[in-house]
Structure formats: structure tokens, C-alpha cells
Amino acid sequence: MERSSSPGKIHLIGEHAVVYGKPAILAAIDRRVFCSVFPSKGIRIFSQGFGSLYSKPKDCIDFACLLTKLHECGEFKRLFAEVRRSPSASLKALAGKAMLELGTEDGFTCKIKTQITPNSGLGSSAAVSLSFVNALSHNASGKKVRDASLEIEKLFHGRPSGADTAVCQRGGMVWFENRRVTGLKFVKRKALLVKTKRESTTGELVSMVRKIDRRKREPIMDEIASFAKEMRGAVAKNGNGKIMDIFNCVQSDLRALGISTEKTDSICSIVRSNGGGAKISGAGGGGNVICVHDNLRLLRKKLSGYDTEIVSLGERGLI
Ligand code: PMV
Q1: Which of 240, 297, 262, 290 is nearest to 10 (CA)?
Q2: Ligand 1 centre from 104 Cα, in Å?
Q3: pLDDT one-digit tens code per residue, 192-222
Q4: 10 and 151 fall within a common domain
Q5: pTM of the model
Q6: Does residue 160's CB lie within 6 angstroms of at least one atom of ligand 1?
Q7: Which among 25, 122, 202 is the best mutation to test ligand 1's pocket, defined by most ligand atoms within 8 Å of the CB?
Q8: Statement to judge: residues 39 and 150 lie in one domain
Q9: What CATH number is given to the structural domain containing 36?
């Protein structure tokens, strides 16, 4: 049996801006997806949180070929409808595309266990794709695993920047710019995640931001990029003050892009009025709010009406 696990991630800064070639800083978190794979007749996937799949290798591969064609033609609306038709359709896309990328038609049984809520800005799909491909591929190179995972991500998100895949594979904290990833020097710290309990769809939110008039969008992206340079210095030092200030400024930029929600805004305002910093993590439209504060337990008490959890940043990557 082959086993693999991948962390999820949070965006410290640069979500959406990264799609326009601006830098982003991401951190791997101590919430993971675990995959185990063993050979069997046919394809069977059992997952906690994503349903199950019983299928034939050929059916999975044919489905992945159809989805790949839709992606190549830019027919994202139909692509997303096919992939999200049911939990088993998503698993079929995952299995079929991984088999296409790895050049295998052998049957297998896979068990997936996850600690990461899907569609909540925590990189669930990157973590599932990476751990699945890594467990299925027996000793493939890191590059092969990353490339195959990114191809799977394309079926779920259209044109992902590759930042989630990069940080989940590498772990720690990374600077991601123009498809290139660099590991960052960082001081280990914790953050509070507050769930808005509203799922978001990355591909649709990215398209929504793309529709904003360039003259409005570009200055916002430029401002986020200049905050990213300041964030790079701040994560390498002790103390949260600078990170909290940047979070609050960037949240107002993300809000101006239309990807915040009323609930996100009210969580951020509670955090700010208690001396902390808070922002969306990932695509927005709900998902998780990430908060930094010198006393996370106290902040958690102030947010007692919400579902919250404390996570560590800069954790181990794909294993
Ligand atoms: O919400 P997530 O975890 O899928 O992150 C999306 C981040 C974006 O910058 C909005 C898109 C991307 O591909 O980087």
C-alpha cells in the first residue's frame, strides 16, 4: 500500500493578484489530506467528505478526456457543471485525469481522509490532488507529481495560478510570482480561522474579478503587490503588528474587488475592533477568514458565536 499526505494552505497575501502575475505569500497549515492506494480490480475510491466512486478505469479515463477537451476549448461553464454534477463525478475526474497524466490504466482502491473543508480557501483541491497523485504514482519525481496535480486542478478551477499546488507540495511559507516558487525565511506562528460556512467556487470568483474594469482593477492589484513586499519582511520577524496592519489594508482591497461577503466583513470588523488583523484566505465569496492577534485565545472568545480553529503556519509539505 502506498500512502501520502499533503497539507492545506492559507494565503497570507496575494490571492487574485497572483492571477495577474503579482506576488503571493502562502503558508502550509497543520490540517492535511491523507491518501492510501493499493492495487485492485476496477477503480474504488472511499472518502470521508467527498463521497465514493466505483468505476472502470476506461470510464474514468474517457470522462477525463471529455473534461480535458472542454478545458482546451475554454468551455469552463460546462466543464464545472460536469465536474460538480455529483461527488462521484468529481472523484471520477480526479481518478481519470491522474491516470491520463501518469500513463496508467491499472485498477486501484483509494481511501481519502481529510481535515480540510472543501471550497473554503484552504487549498483542499490542491491537497487532494497532490496526495492522490503521489500515492498513485510510486516514486514519480516531484516535478511529475506537481505537474499532474496542476492538470487535475485545471479541471476544477479553470486556470489556477499554481500557487496552492506549490506551497502544499513544498510546505513552509513561499513567495509565488509568475509561476515561480521560492521558499521564505519565516518565524513560526499561529493564526485563527473563522468559518463563514459559505462555500466558494474559485473558478467563478476569478472570472468575476476578471470582469472588473482594468482601470479599477489594476491599481488595486498594484497596491496588493506592494503590501506583499512588506509582508515578506514581516513574516521573517517576531511580532504580529505589521502583519495585522497589512491584513486589514489588504482586506479592504479584496472587498473593493467584490469578493468579500457581509459575514466576512462583520468577522473582520470584530477582529479589528479587538486590535487584530483579518482577511479572506483564497478566492473569497465566503470560505475562511484568517485572523492574526497577539492573544488568539482571547480573540477566539470574542468570536465565540462563530466556528473557529487555531492553526499553525509554515508546516511540513507533501510526504
Ligand atoms: O480559494 P482557493 O484556495 O482555491 O485559492 C484561490 C486563489 C486565487 O488566487 C483566487 C486563484 C489562484 O489560482 O491562485
Answers
A1: 290
A2: 29
A3: 999 998 887 888 899 899 999 999 999 999 9
A4: yes
A5: 0.95
A6: yes
A7: 202
A8: yes
A9: 3.30.230.10
Q: Kindly state whether residues 171 and 251 are assigned to the same domain.
A: no
| Number of domains observed in the structure of the chain | 2
Whether 203 maps to a domain, the answer reads yes
- State the residue range of the domain holding 154: 2-180
Residue pLDDT, tens place only, 264-302: 999 999 999 999 999 999 999 999 999 999 999 999 999
Which residue among 11, 128, 224 is best mutated to probe the pocket of ligand 1, counting the most ligand atoms within 8 A of its Cβ? 11
162 lines ligand 1 (CB under 6 A): no
188 CA distance to ligand 1 centroid (A)? 23
Residue type for 252, please? S
Residues in the chain: 319
Q: What are phi and psi of 145, to 5 degrees?
A: -60, -45
Residue 15 Cα to ligand 1 midpoint, Å, equals 6
Name the nearest CA neighbour of 286 among 209, 157, 206, 195: 195
Indicate whether residue 119 lines ligand 1 (CB < 6 A): no
Q: Which residue has the cell 496552492?
A: 164
